[in-house]
Amino acid sequence: MKNKAETILEQAEELRRNARFGEAINFYRAAAEAPDATEEIKRKSLASVELIQEINGFVNVDLMNP
Q1: What is the distance between the alpha carbons of residues 55 and 62, in angstroms, rounded to a whole number?
Q2: Is residue 47 part of a domain?
């Protein structure tokens, strides 16, 4: 049986797969902050938030300066 943090994490991953990044970040943070979150869930959730933010903030400066 899954605990609440695992369920939230699965929802976050489904949102990420569907390119709903803002909502996914909220769910990843909720999973990390859930009272029953394991260290692995916290680590995975926070790493996913960082990765999404890094990808969304990526700018290719070579394409901006032709």
Answers
A1: 17
A2: yes
* Domains held by the chain: number: 1
Structure tokens at 5: 């943090």
Residue found by looking up tokens 């990044």 in the block: 21
Which pTM was predicted?
Answer: 0.84
Which domain covers residue 51, as residue numbers?
Answer: 4-58
Q: Which 8-state DSSP code applies to residue 20? A: -
User: For the segment 31-63, what is each residue's pLDDT rounded down to a tens digit?
Assistant: 999 999 999 999 999 999 999 999 888 777 777
Long-range contacts formed by 55-61: CB under 8 A, 24+ apart: 56/21
